Amino acid sequence: MAVITKTNAGSATDRPLLNQVAMVTGGGRGIGRAIAIRLAELGAAVAIGGRDSEKLLETADALETLTERVFWQKVDVTRVDEIGKFISETEMKLGAITILVNNAGIGLFGPAHEKSEEEWDRVLSTNLKSVFLVSRAVVPSMIQQGGGDIINISSLAGKNSFAGGGLYCASKWGLQGLSGCMAEDLRDYGIRVSVICPGSVATEFSGRGPKDPAKALQAEDVAHAVEAVVTQRPGSFMSEIQLRPLRKS
């Protein structure tokens, strides 16, 4: 783990998140990396967590050129003890978390009847239970602060079913329901809960097969949607964004 500091110039207009602290799970690569970089460009202090220390350090090196404060830590977001340590050390190094992006996720595909209980538990714990655990740990501080943003990265697979998607779709459909209920539970505290549902994204994610980059979303497209959520004017929020590539594969 490491804390990296660098002095940056920039106006409040150019960097509207200067006083914000963002935490991104699965922040070392792919969509999470793109989101972390965009939040840093907007001025936020950024904490990233994930299972690959090498990728986290690479992303932290990129972040340090963009924001004054960066923190990274290896963490398994399915484990309550590791989540608690990640959050407490983030708050100690950077301050209270005001933006949480639940991005960590995996994909295991194939007919549900051919999958093991261990595979079911792995997908549901990573894609759904982790959002419950991390959000539950962050929310009390947001309530005390009087507000915050929680953005859950779901998928269009949370809206549509397809052959071989039983485990993945179950996790993402569940995430849709959890996100909607969280939004209702927390809005009176000034906490905005949003869900972003991308279609096919050209990343290292272990999806159903190779993606044509010309007919897939880029990780930066998802990061742009996150930017729209966190820069939405006070008093309103985007409850759900569905994001599709312009050209169908």
Structure, described:
The protein is an alpha/beta fold. The protein has a single domain, classed as NAD(P)-binding Rossmann-like Domain (Rossmann fold), CATH 3.40.50. It has six helices and eight strands. The protein has an eight-stranded mixed sheet with strand order 1-4-3-2-5-6-7-8, with helices on both faces. Helix 6 links the parallel strand 7 (191-198) and strand 8 (240-243). It is globular and about 45 Å long. The model is unreliable at 4-9 (pLDDT under 50).
Give a concise summary.
This protein is α/β, with parallel strands linked by helices and 249 residues long. It has six helices and eight strands, in the order E-E-H-E-H-E-H-E-H-E-H-E-H-E.
Key traits:
single chain; 249 residues; alpha/beta; Rossmann fold; 8-stranded mixed β-sheet; 40% helix
Under CATH at level 1, the class stands as Alpha Beta
Q: Under the CATH scheme, which architecture would be assigned?
A: 3-Layer(aba) Sandwich
Count of beta strands: 8
Predict the CATH topology.
Answer: Rossmann fold
The percent range for strand residues is 15-25%
List strands and helices in order, with pairings.
Elements: E1 2-5, E2 21-25, H1 30-41, E3 45-50, H2 53-63, E4 69-74, H3 80-94, E5 99-102, H4 117-145, E6 148-153, H5 166-186, E7 191-198, H6 219-230, E8 240-243
Parallel strand pairs: 2-3, 2-5, 3-4, 5-6, 6-7, 7-8
Antiparallel strand pairs: 1-4
Helix pairs in contact: 1-6, 3-4, 4-5
